[in-house]
Amino acid sequence: MHVDHRRGIHSSATVRCRSPSTLATITHSAAVCRMESKYQALGRPGEGTVGVVCVGDVIEPQANDSVLRGHGTLLRSGSLVASRCGRVQRWNQLVLVEPLAGAYAAAVGHVVVGRIVQVEATRWLVDIHATTLAVLPLSTAGGAVRKAAEGAVDMRSILVEGDLIAAEVQAVRSDGQVQLHVRDAVASKLPPGTVVDIPAALVRPQRKHVHHWAATGIKAVFGCNGAIWIGVDGGSSAAVPGIEQVQAVVQAATAVRALAGVGQAITPAAVERMVP
């Protein structure tokens, strides 16, 4: 059955999707159809876009030996084309397509924003939007905690269920389980604020994932897992933010949602341009 997915018919069917160089028969789900409509509004690669592609689009017309094919791509008639919808990522010679939706794929060194969901004897389990819960061991939770680890430690006096933390991915096991690391478990706890969840592919790895807006007195943590925390800079659970700070937090969160809605990469500079 042929379905015009450009008109937003939400059903899974075999359709024909046109691309700049090929006509391919693919199977589209409702999510792919919705994403392609956003992709068409952004344009195609090579036209000043942010690198969003759909199935069958040509990424590299001349895929010579200097291009390494990563996941989400395939070779067709000497060209590197996308085998799924998503964002083009380039790492030196490696070219791959990361999906705009789906579970977060952790990598060592990533800064993530997660929520404590379970407290155990010597570790915390953290939801970071991955396929499994991440682990924050007591032994990697900062110097002050490690010194107390020799005796009995009240884990809930440090972090409890529902607490938000900013942490770094220390290791990813072969079974997919992620181990986190923080310099100080107490300092890693984020004060009250708002969390905006977006596709992880829209958050590019950068040197600094914590950004401060001195003019408005707010800050944001851009988690590589697609969780972006925005709150008052230097705030605490007991402090009551001013109305100007609350408005600034709302404006920044709205800017993040607007950028994500059109598939734009989320960076501090991009958010700052949209905040008055």
Automatic annotation (TrEMBL):
InterPro entries: Exosome_RNA_bind1/RRP40/RRP4, KH_dom_type_1_sf, NA-bd_OB-fold, S1_RRP4
Keywords: Exosome, RNA-binding
One Gene Ontology cellular component: nuclear exosome (RNase complex)
Entry keyword Thylakoid: no
Domain named RRP4 S1: residues: 104-170
GO molecular function, a single term: RNA binding
CDD domains per record: S1_Rrp4
Keyword Repeat included in the entry's annotation: no
GO biological process: CUT catabolic process; exonucleolytic trimming to generate mature 3'-end of 5.8S rRNA from tricistronic rRNA transcript (SSU-rRNA, 5.8S rRNA, LSU-rRNA); nuclear polyadenylation-dependent rRNA catabolic process; poly(A)-dependent snoRNA 3'-end processing; TRAMP-dependent tRNA surveillance pathway; U4 snRNA 3'-end processing
Short name of one Pfam family: S1_RRP4
Superkingdom of the organism of origin: Eukaryota
Name the record gives this protein: RRP4 S1 domain-containing protein
Organism: Chlorella vulgaris
Native organism taxonomy: Eukaryota, Viridiplantae, Chlorophyta, core chlorophytes, Trebouxiophyceae
